[in-house]
Each structure stands twice: as C-alpha cells, then as structure tokens.
Amino acid sequence: MPGWSLPPAPAAASLRPYDLRCEHRRTPLGVGAPAPRLSWRLASDRRGDAPAAYRIRVHGPGGVLAWDSGWVDGQDVSAGYGGAPLVSFARYRWEVSVRPGGSAESWFDTGVMHADEWRAAWIGHDPETEPPFEPPADDREPRTARTAFLPPPRYFRRELDLRPATSVRIACTARGLYELHVNGARAGDGELTPGWTDYRYRVPYQVYDVTDLVGEGPVCVGAVLADGWWSGSLGWDGRQQAQRYGRRPELLVQLVADHADGSRTVAGTDATWRETTGPLRYADLLMGEWYDARLDLDGWDRPGFDDSSWAPARVLSSDHGVLVPSLAEPVRVTQDVVPVDVRRAGDRTIVDLGQNIAGRVRLTIRGARAGDRVTLRHGEALDDDGGLYTANLRSAEATDHYVAAGRPEETFEPRFTVHGFRYVEITGHSGDLDVAGRVLHSDTPVAGEFSCSDATVGQLMSNVRWSQRGNFVSVPTDCPQRDERLGWTADAQVFLPTACYNADVAAFFTGWLADLRCAQTAEGAVPDVVPHVMTERHGTPGWGDAATIVPWHLYRVYGDERVLRDSLPSMRRWVDHVERHNPGLIWRNRVGSHYGDWLQADVRTSRDLLATAFFALSADLTAKAAAVLGDHSAFERYAGLRARIGEAFAREFVSPDGRITGDTQTGYLLALAHGLVPDPLVPAAVGHLVADLEGRGRRLTTGFAGVGLLGPVLSAHGHEDLAYALLHDDRYPSWGYSIKRGATTIWERWNGWTEETGFGPVAMNSFNHYALGSVGAWLYSGVAGLGQEEDSAGFRRPLVRPLPGGTLTWAVASYDTPLGRLSSRWEVDGGTLRLEVRIPPGAVATVHVPATDPSSVRESGAPVDEVVGATGSALVCRVPSGRYEFTAAWER
Ligand code: BGC
C-alpha cells in the first residue's frame, strides 16, 4: 500500500547505519533544540554483529565542522548534538560512522534558535476595514443554522524585491490553519498546518525551504488563513468564540534569504501585507467547506497581481513567546483511495470507497455550468434504504459545497476540513464525474507489519491500522467523524502499545505530552482531553494516568531517557495529587470524572477497583522512571507508595480464595497485569478469570480499560487457547462480529450495530475509534512474539516468544526497533514448527522456540548451543544479533 509499507532494511555484509533521524524525524526542517538527538538504525547479515563504537561528525554552514563526537563506545540511540551553538535557519549535514562497519549521512535544518531573532508580527483581518462582500447575483447560500456565522477564510499576500539568494527559507505559522504559497506554488506538502497544540502555551511553526520556488526578480509570498481548531468548531461546543483560544485567525510569516556574499535578508509579516476574501466562503473542520470557483483569485500568489482592492492587514501583536518548533511529522495526504462502487440516480450519486477513512474527496466534474452547486455529504455507513447514514455525526455537518465556474473540467478538493467517512453522497451534478478518497493523517513512518494465515485476523489488523491513521490527525483523537475528535487521554494510553508497533510515533507523542504537561493543573490533575479544551473535568482514573503511562511506554519502546526527564515532575505531581485525595490508598474520592471500564459489555467493573489499579500502576511507573534517571529518593518514595497501594488493594478487593471484587474480566485483568494479586493467589485468580470466560461461552465483557489486557494476561498464564478463542470469535461481542458486518475500521462500541437493534445509540456510535483495537499489540508481541524483556528499553534485549495457536498455520511480523529490524516468522506444517527470527545488531535476544519436545529443537539443522532453559512448551535460548532458523516437533 503506498505511503504505508515498510522500506526494506538494507542487506549488508557488515554493520551499516541507515534511517538516520534527528529529534526522531528524518531530515527535519525547523529543528529548535539546542542539542538535538541524533539516532540511526543498523543492519547486518552477520551473526553476533554489535557496534563497538560510533562517531558523529556534523558540518554546518559553509561546510565548517561544527561537532566531532570522537569515537564513543557502544551505540547511543539518542546521542545529543554536542558541538558549537547551532545557528538559525541553517543546514547541518551529519555523518555517523560505526565500528566495525560503514557510515551514512543525513541532514537537519535549524529553525529560530533564539526568540529575539523573530522579525515577524502576528497579522490578521481588520473587520473595520472590510469592504462589503458582493455575492454573485444568482448566489444561493448553502448555509445552515450551524454554518450561518462561519466567516470566509482570508487571503494574504506581500511582494518583496529580493537580491539573488543561495537559499530562501520561510518560517510560518498561524493561530488557525494556513496554507503557504510562494510564486504561484504551494510550499511544502503539510496539511492542516500548523496542527493542533495547546495554543495558549505553544504555537508550533513550520520551516520551508523555498529556494527552488524563488528565481530572479520579485517574490510573492501568500497565505490562506482559516479558523481550524483555533476559532472554528471544536467538539460538541460549536464554534470557538474565544472560549479557549481566539476569535479570528492570525498569521505569522518570516522569510530568511542567504546571499552569496554571506549576508542575510530577513522579512516578516507586518502592516504592509494586504488581505481579502476569495473563493472560499467558509471552511470549518467539522462542518465542511464551501468553495465558489466563480470567485477564484487567479494569480493572487504570483508577483505582479493587482491587489489594490485588497485591504491592509492589521498588525495584532508581536508575541513570540508562544512560538515553538514543530516536533511531529505534519499531517499529509498519504494515499488516494479509488472507489469500489459508484451508484447514480439522477443528480444523486453515492460513492463507496470500500474503506472508512479520515480525509476528504477530490472531485473532478465535467460539463457543469457556472453557478451549479455540487454538494458532497460524508458518512461512515448506509441506512437500510441505501441512503447515507449520518445520524452518528451529531452536529458535524461534514458537508462540502462546490460552486462551478463553468469550465469544461473542474477539480475541487477542500483543504481546511477533514471528514471521517467511507461513503460520499454527491448531489447537484448530473454530468461526468471522478472521485478519489484522499487519506489524511499525521505522517508517522511505518514501523511494523503483521500478517498471518487467517483472513479475519488479517482484516482485524488492517482495521486497527486504519483507525490509527484516521485518528492520528495532529493529535491522537477518539474519532474522526462526529462533533468530537478530541485527544481523550485514556484512548491514547490504551492504544499506545499498538500504535508504537505500527508506526514510529516518538515525535508525534513527544508533542502531545508537551501539551499534556501544559494542561496539568497546579495541583497535578490531568484533563480528560489533551489539548485541554471544553471539559473542565480533570483527574479521571485511567484517563489522567496517561501522564505516567505514555512517557514510560515511550521510554521503553524508544530507549530515549529524555522523555522521562521531561515528564518525571509531571508524573510525580499526578500521583501525589491522587494520593492527596485518597490518603487511605483506595481511590474512592473522585478527583475528576469516572468512566469506569468505558463501554464494557454486560457487566460493571468496580470503579474503586479500577481506579486503585491505575493508582498502583502510576506509582509503579513513576518509581521506575525515577530509577532510570538515578533519582533515588523519588524511587524510594514511589516504590514504597506502590507497595502500600498493593497491600491496600489486596485487602480491599482480593478474597482469600483469589476472587476479585465484582468478579469481572477487567477486574481480574487489571489486577493480574499490574501485579496486584498476592503471589499465592495468582493461580486461583487466573482460574476465576478463565471460569468467567468459559461460563459465558468464551465471550469477552471488557471495555476500554480491560480489552488490551486479554491476550497478554491469558497467554502469560498459559491460556493462549482462550485468547485465540476470543480472537477468532465472530459472535456479539467480538472483533470478528464487526468484521462479519463489513467493518474496515475498529468500532467505538461492541454494539455499534447488532442484528437485534441495528445501529447502536446514535448519541455515541463511531465506526472509527481505536481503543478496542488495542488488541493489535498482542498480535505483534503474543502471536508473532516480538517483545522485549521487562527491564529492557529500546529493545536492547528482545524477547521473542511466538504463540502458535488458534486456527493459524503461520504468522509473520517485523518491527523497526531503535537498533534495527526485529522479525519473526513461524509456520506449522504437519508435526513440525519452523521459526525464523532476526535480531538487530547490538541486541541480545531471548528466544522461546515453541516445541512439544524441547530436545527436538534444531537451529539451521544443528542442536542449539545457547540454551538457557526450557518451559513445558518451548526451548529457551539466548542469541546475539543475526538470522536464525529453528525447527521443532510441534503437536497441538
Ligand atoms: C469518547 C471516548 C472517551 C470517552 C470518555 C467519549 O465521548 O469518544 O473515546 O474516552 O468519551 O468518556
């Protein structure tokens, strides 16, 4: 699939660095950290290859050596730049060499290194100088009550006489959304820029290298500016009228040109910029976009355009304190989806993309007359009569209008809106048309792949990936379609392990965590949604705990301590806050809301139990983070607290027979997963969990908090047969049930649609919500067996423990760890199991080779040397990097 498949790891005879990254990103522009992290992966075909040392050399402007690290032992997965201070708007080329082995090169570009280098002002529209808008005579306003007051996006421009330049860069941002144009072309391929952050504290700017767009002569810099998250509709709250951010969008642009003589020209937005409205009549993330092509401003972004009728832009402020470099990959269009079905009846067309996506449509029409209005409505499903089902969108209109200019062929693609949809209904055009679905999401690089012999499980993983794409749109959201699309913290934390396997989300979550810390209250409470908008609810169990779970998991996966250093104070404040309100250590006193095991099926897990389990987990992770950072007193404090919460939990919720209050699957799963059952009672507690599942005919009852633990907990206690039974189930409630109904993304609720009731409750029924897709991590770590030891970080000590089972005859997965690629492939054929494993250079792995008789295990035909033990169903060996081919006797 284009834009969503792994680049091949280079085959190499000896150690070869590849995939060089700076601040977790490939060739980023606008790096603002004074000591950016430089990292790389290694490939090698030789067994036992491990880097003895590395050396980084960085060359700055003019090819001058800015830093030579010298030879450093080992492989630091996050070596920070340690050379001469970085200068602004410059390209740094860097090379890493490894011993023994080769070297590789990459580059990064700096942004604004010192706040006093900003020369640009925030500018915007001045309502007082607005010339009256003359609508075209035959205009039929498509506005509804919800779109009645949406203002038109505005066009800004400025021409500059620029001396010939060797390089031209532009830093740009908006409070709102912007699209930057230079000399008639769009700059960059980012969408919905600058993205969504907590704008009160952090407004990210992007840097563009526009050297190629600038020739001899004058330069025209233009920008289109829309409301976006800043002043448009947010969640179910309607249009933002400065509740949280501002009333009208604002733009900031700074151009920096370097000349051959070493001088630099700097120009920024100021009162000389001009602005007007154009063909975009409104644009709103939730409502949609209205574009009147008769009002096109041909040539507005090229030099020489007559802007005398435009108004002067208004200078609003010179507040540079909030500007921060963009940390994450931008949102991009990563793929076009070709419709699988187009049905026409008169001037009504229903298009089926065959895949639920977040994005928009590119529509090409032929034969329309000037003034014809084509309307596109978007939905995730069809109703019983084959019409578009939109009840679950709540107040999000998700409707675009295009008014034709009357050209023989015209193409429309909205740019400041995004819809969650599979179906599009097009009305107002009976002529020829073409449609493509444009898939939009934060362009996090693919990190892993999983496939197996069972088509339904394969579809489940596909649904998980599509829900990740559809909901990683600048921030991790709950859903992309209805009037919500918020960064719900529990959804993010439960899905994070799965997300990390699918994509490299280090940069993406680094930015989101910065917003989480901004939103944390002085007392330490964490809001339910980040960026913090709308709700004033703070401190919900399982939601607020994202403050500890997310940084810890990112550290575990990427091995980069900086995330812990940045987050430890916030982790501590969160745990302290919960403890302050619950000195008895059972979390009964609400410090926020309480959603329990959200959207669980048929049961009700005790809320105090769930909350206390998260309290214990957060205290534990805070202690672990303190230990990694060498903060002994913090470690003692939180490890002690964790131990005391554990005792309180056992007293309160665990009976002497191993029964856990409420007797629900999620209750057992949380307690077992987080070590809250006293050791002697673990077998009994596992027995009760199994009995519950068996008693229900092997059906799950878990909601958001428990669902991702089913596979890991059951298989950790020898019940992979049950985990597989749930995976393969297609009765309600199960993943298979939604797939049988044709789901192409993960549903928000088990009963999104059932035979008995049809569509689930319209007030909350998204068909693209990743939380219940948190099973994805277990497909990688359980079924295919790609994990790491409990006390390993950055996959330095992988734990490869595949679980042949269920109806599967083979499974294969690969994952790009910070060191390099880790993969496993197993296949069962007759009475033989074959397992191929690849361990990245520098890692030493523990491999559990499934075997009915451990003495039958061979590696490349010979007995295994590095055996460290055996379990009832596997031979355990420890192996360094390289490729291994095991065979073993295997009977079910
Ligand atoms: C969201 C969820 C979220 C929940 C909290 C819902 O409206 O869609 O995913 O976690 O609210 O109760």
Radius of gyration: 28 Å
Q: In whole angstroms, how far apart are the ends? A: 35 Å
Percent helix:
10-25%
Mean pLDDT value: 95
Low-confidence stretches: none
Query: Strand percentage, roughly?
Result: 25-35%
Count of extended strands: 47
Q: How many DSSP H or I helices? A: 15
Envelope shape: globular
**Which ligands does the model contain, each kind named once?**
beta-D-glucopyranose
The major β-sheet equals:
10 strands, mixed
Assembly classification: single chain
Question: Structural class, please?
Answer: alpha+beta
Write the layout of secondary structure elements.
Layout: E1 16-22, E2 37-43, E3 53-59, E4 65-68, E5 72-73, E6 79-80, E7 91-99, E8 103-109, E9 122-124, E10 154-160, E11 167-175, E12 177-182, E13 185-186, E14 203-209, E15 219-226, H1 228-231, E16 250-258, E17 264-268, E18 274-277, E19 280-284, E20 288-292, E21 311-312, E22 314-317, E23 323-325, E24 331-337, E25 341-345, E26 348-366, E27 373-379, E28 381-382, E29 388-389, E30 399-403, E31 409-412, E32 419-427, E33 433-442, E34 448-452, H2 455-471, E35 472-473, E36 475-476, H3 489-502, H4 506-519, H5 546-558, H6 562-581, H7 607-628, H8 632-653, H9 665-673, H10 682-695, H11 704-707, H12 710-716, H13 720-728, H14 735-740, E37 753-754, E38 758-759, H15 776-783, E39 786-788, E40 798-800, E41 810-816, E42 821-829, E43 832-850, E44 858-859, E45 862-863, E46 867-871, E47 874-889
Parallel strand pairs: 14-23, 20-30, 40-43
Antiparallel strand pairs: 1-2, 2-6, 3-4, 3-5, 3-7, 7-8, 9-16, 9-22, 10-15, 10-18, 11-14, 11-16, 12-13, 12-15, 16-17, 18-21, 19-20, 24-33, 25-26, 26-31, 26-32, 26-33, 27-30, 27-32, 28-29, 34-41, 35-36, 37-38, 39-40, 41-42, 42-43, 43-47, 44-45, 44-47, 46-47
The structure holds beta-D-glucopyranose.
The site of beta-D-glucopyranose has 9 residues, from helix 3.
